[in-house]
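tool_call: predict_structure(chain=1)
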Amino acid sequence: MAGLSIQDLMGEKEAGLDLELLAGERGLGKCVTVPRIQKPGLALAGYTTNLHPDRIQVLGSTELSYLNQLAKEKAETNLHELCCLDICCFIITKGQEPPELLVRETETHGIPLLRSHLPSSTFISLITKFLEERLLASTTIHGVLVDVLGVGVLLMGKSGVGKSECALDLVLKGHRLVADDVVKVRMKLPAVLFGEGSDLLHYHMEIRGLGIINIKHLFGVAAIRERKKIDLAIELVEWDEGKEYDRLGLDEQTYPLLGIEVPLLKIPVRPGRNITTIVEVAARNQLLKEMGYHSALEFQDRLEKRMAEVAHLHAHTIIGDNLE
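tool_result:
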């Protein structure tokens, strides 16, 4: 499972967590690897058996008021034992002021002590959702991701088969580039895959014979997207005269990616085939499938009905001939 440092957590402004550092700066390199959080109520009372140090510990009004009413010696002992467990991070909610003892212990043990002005319930809901999305499985894949008519199409295939050229032609037709060469894929709940480009290659594309080009500068911001849900995978393969390719579209294949099966098409490439148009039509066809309309299955049903009608008519003709 991926990890997220406390430093990076503080820098996530889009999540709306509203975090500020109060103490324990030297522990900002610690990583969160578990999306669940914990409220250490019993741990503050000295019972640490079921405490999970790898989880973010949230301190609300109840926890802080309990600490403030403890005898000084008892509070010092309990907090010292708690901080010796190498806690990942403490976060105080509702903008409350932390007890001086808590600030001192977290600073001594290098445990980040953060504060948010959000109420506990709101903060826990936001950070749980955020961590679930950030800490779920991710990977990188060699390919090109484009947004074609709102369909996220992942182009795959051997190096030099024409993935980037196809994507460039799609951009010229008004579609949008998400990533070229290296696609970072991240899973989001419940079971959705999103792709984006690497920080280094963002908006750039390599075209053999031309070199590196910047799609954003050449075609404007309307030609790019930061990230896109992956709806369809298309593998470009070299044409093999001895191989039989699917001609009806009934042989549905999938591509396993992070445990999710993505619809897969294999398109043979050879001179004279307009791959860009085929990809564009494949995206349109995928939209129809998602709406419950399957062209190949409809054709098969019509064909079977026609064959049944012919067989029925033929049977009646034979019976009539025999009666005569």
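agent: The domain at 4-134 is CATH 3.40.1390.20 (Udp-n-acetylmuramoylalanyl-d-glutamate--2,6- Diaminopimelate Ligase; Chain: A, domain 1). Proceeding to next step.
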